[in-house]
Amino acid sequence: MERHNYGRGEYKYFSYPLPAPIEDLRTGLYEPLAAIANRWLIALGAAERVPAALAQMLAICAEHDQSRPTALLLKYGPGDFNCLHQDVYGEIAFPFQVTLFLNEPHEDFEGGEFVLVEQRPRAQSRPEVVQPRRGDMIVFPNRYRPVRGRAGNYRVAVRHGVSRLRSGERFTLGIIFHDAK
Questions:
Q1: Chain-centre distance of CA 14, in angstroms?
Q2: Whole-structure pTM value
Q3: Residues 137, 51 contacting (CB under 8 angstroms)
Q4: What is the per-residue DSSP string for 11-43?
Q5: pLDDT tens, 27-66?
Q6: Contact status, residue 1 vs residue 82, Cβ threshold 8 Å
């Protein structure tokens, strides 16, 4: 992570075929999230739509030379953090991603809060800081989300990261629904 200036910590991407529990989770979460994603795209007045099935999404990724899997395991130790970012990986990007929390805050680690920041047009950025427990899952926007304003819906960019870990070790599983170049 550090050599790419993303923060400090370790991440390892899984290869295809993904382990069955990760593949099952990715496939099972995709369909309901695709329905929400398409409602968001409609709200934003976008012409694009995401397909109803993960296999179709991955076929579109492959057509755009995005064929590397993006599910990953992240490990943070004392002093580690993850800078604010978006996991886009190419021209095709699904609007949501998921993080599963694999250990317990205040028992296994201190600090390391999950951070989401909305970058609102012509306004200050707004952070949300979350400290999920072991077994919790967060579904969050990959790039942007619609927000209702006085003149209708508008697009708000969303970035995510992890605050500095003060002690212990923190592990998460990241599930992204599009492949990388």
A1: 15
A2: 0.92
A3: no
A4: EEEPPSSPPHHHHHHHHHHHHHHHHHHHHHHHH
A5: 999 999 999 999 999 999 999 999 999 999 999 999 999 9
A6: yes
